[in-house]
Write a sequence for this structure.
């Protein structure tokens, strides 16, 4: 039986709404995010909607603040910052989250086909960094870590 267009739209909407809580089959999850930039935007939007704030916005935060996060924009460094600053921040993970109890978690975001650079792998040998390629994995990891599961 063929579904009408409106029920397909509702199904798609409800699926997207559940993305943060439901785990989909790997093939379907691979289609959800195409680029690292898309993944970065999706992850930051999720953090903001769920009570995480950037350090510069902490004084303006309203309601419950789950913690603080920051993004290290390594790709943006070319030509826009002094070489010393670029070298000092190179190989740091993309997202750093700080829990109110003092714990920290670091995420390296990659596109579906993205691979870690040598310096990033060396960094991760000394400090735990979770590599994320799919948004669902990020949301689940943040919630489990936040609740200390």
């Amino acid at each position: 039986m063929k579904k009408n267009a409106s029920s397909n739209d509702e199904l798609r909407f409800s699926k997207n709404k559940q993305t943060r809580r439901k785990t989909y089959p790997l093939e379907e999850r691979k289609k959800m995010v195409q680029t690292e930039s898309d993944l970065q935007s999706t992850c930051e939007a999720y953090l903001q909607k769920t009570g995480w704030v950037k350090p510069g916005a902490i004084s303006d935060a309203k309601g419950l603040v789950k913690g603080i996060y920051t993004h290290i924009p390594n790709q943006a460094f070319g030509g826009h910052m002094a070489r010393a600053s670029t070298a000092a921040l190179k190989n740091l993970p993309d997202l750093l989250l700080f829990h109110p109890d003092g714990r920290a978690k670091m995420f390296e975001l990659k596109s579906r086909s993205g691979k870690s650079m040598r310096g990033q792998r060396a960094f991760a040998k000394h400090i735990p960094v979770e590599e994320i390629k799919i948004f669902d994995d990020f949301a689940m990891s943040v919630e489990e870590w936040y609740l200390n599961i």
Summary: The helical segments are 5-18, 26-30, 36-49, 83-89, 118-126, 135-146. The chain has six helices and five strands. The first helix runs from residue 5 to 18. The chain has one domain: 5-146.
